[in-house]
Amino acid sequence: MSTKTISISESLNTSLHKKIAISPLKSPSKSLKPVQTVTMGGSHFKTIIPLATQPNVQQIQVPGSRFTYVRLVTSTTANPTTLQAGGPTTSTMQTAKPMVVNTGTVRMSVPIAPAQTMKQMVPKSITTTTQVMTNAQTQQRLIMPATSLPQIQPNFTNLPPGTVLAPAPGTGNVGYAVVPAQYVAQLQQSSLVTMASSSGFHTPTGVQTQARLPVNGLSTAPDSSTRPRKPCNCTKSQCLKLYCDCFANGEFCNNCNCNNCFNNLEHETERLKAIKTCLDRNPGAFKPKIGKGKQGESDRRHSKGCNCKRSGCLKNYCECYEAKIMCSSICKCVGCKNFEESPERKTLMHLADAAEVRVQQQTAAKTKLSSQISDLLTRTTPISTSGGGRLPYTFVTKEVVEATCECLLDQARQTELSGQPQALAERLILEEFGHCLMRIISSAGKAKSDCINC
DNA sequence: GAGTTTGAAACT
DNA sequence: CAGTTTCAAACTC
Fold first, then answer.
1. What pLDDT, on the 0 to 100 scale, is given for residue A54?
2. Which pLDDT tens digit goes with each residue over A325-379?
3. Which UniProt keywords apply (predicted)?
4. Closest to A273 measured CA to CA, from A72, A35, A67
5. How far does Cα A293 stand from its chain's mean position?
6. If residue A46 lies in a helix (H) or strand (E), which one and from where to where?
7. Which nucleotides along chain C are within 7 A of a protein C-beta?
8. Nearest nucleotide relative to A311: CA against C1'
9. Distance in angstroms, CA of A271 to C1' of B11?
10. How confident is the model over A96-120, as pLDDT tens digits?
11. Which site in A131, A194, A407, A424 is 20 to 30 Å from A450, CA atoms measured?
C-alpha cells in the first residue's frame, strides 16, 4: 500500500496550498483498519478520533501533536482511487478503508467502518451545521472542518468518504475529513464525545470507548447496524487479543464489563502493538470471516470454516451457525448438521420462526389492549358511585373484550406450540386472563379516581 | 448467578 | 503443522 500525495490548489488561497497524503484504501470488513496501516512500518502511529469543532463532533488534540485527530467511516463499496482534491470529478467512490496521513512527523491510522444505513442515521440536528452531500450511492456524507477554512469546503463534494486532508508540516493545525453521516450518529452515542475535552486530550482512568461498526461489513442481524454491540466481559486478555470481540471487530471497548481493559485510547500504544502482533501472526486476522463463497456455493460463507466437534454446528458456538450461514466445504467440523437439507436445522429454524411470531403476536395483542384501555380513558366518562367502590362498567366494551380474547388465544397458541401439558396450558391461560382483568380494573380504578379528583 | 461446555485464538 | 492451553462466549442448571 503506497501513500500518494495530492496537492490542493484549486479554489484555495495560494497561501493555503497544501499537500495531502492519501493512502490506498482497503475493503470494508468486520475489522477496523488500523491494522492495515500498522503494517506499513513507520515510527509513530496515531489512532484518529473524532473532530470536535461542530456541535455534534468531538475534536481531540493529543499532546505533542499538532493535528486534530478524526475517526472516519465510509461506504461499503467502490475502489481506491487517486484523488485530486478541489478539482473536478476525478475521484470515484471508494471502499471503506484505513488511511494513513503522512504529515511528515506523525502518521495517523484511521479505522474506518462501512456506513450502511446512513440516511436514517443522519441526525437532523447536525444538518444545519455541516454540509450534507448525497452521492450516487445515496449515501450522505459530511465535510467537517477541524478548524474553520470555509473556502475549501465546496470543493470536496467529490472526495470519497474517509479522506483526510491534512496540512503540510508547519502550516498549522488544520485538517478536513469527509465523513459519512452515520459516523456522526456514532459520535453522538459514543462516549468519545464525553471523554474528550476541548482543552486537551484527557481520558479519565477506566473510561472506555467503543465506536460501533457493522460486523464484517455485513449485517449479521437485521438491525445490527443500529443496535449497540454486546459489551465484552474479558478478564485476562486486557481486550488486546482476538478473544475480545470488541478488539476483534476493531472497536474500542465502551460500556463493557471487562477488567483491566487496554482497548481504549488511553492505552493506544499497547493497543497498536497488539494489533501489530495479531497481524504478524495472521495478516488476515482482522479481515471479514464471512465472505463470498466459490461459485455454486452460498453467497456468504466462513472464510476459514469452522472446526466444531460437539455442537453439530447448530449452536452459537459455531461461527457459521452464529452468522446464520450454512457450513461449507472448507469447514472441518465433525457431525455437522448445519447444511441445507438437515432436518435438525430445519426444526431449529421452524422453532425460531415460531418463537418470533409468538412474541410478535403477544406484543401486538398487549399493545392493542393497552391502547383500547388508554383510548377508553380519554373518551369515556367513568361512572362513579358515591362510596360504593364499584368500578365503571363502561370499561368492559366490545373492544376490550376482543383484545382480552386475543391475549388469551395467543397464550393458548403459545402453550400448544411449545407442547405444554393441557393442565399447564389451562393454568397459563387463566393467569393471562387474570393479567388482563387486572389491567382493566387498574385502568378503571384510575379513571374513577381521576373523576373523583376532578 | 454459578458452573459447565464449547471452539477459536494463542501458545509450545 | 499438530497438540495443548487459554480464553470468553454460549449454554445449562
1. 45
2. 999 999 999 999 999 999 999 888 888 787 778 778 878 888 888 888 787 777 6
3. Nucleus
4. A35
5. 25
6. strand A45-47
7. 6-11
8. B6
9. 20
10. 333 433 333 333 333 434 333 333 3
11. A407
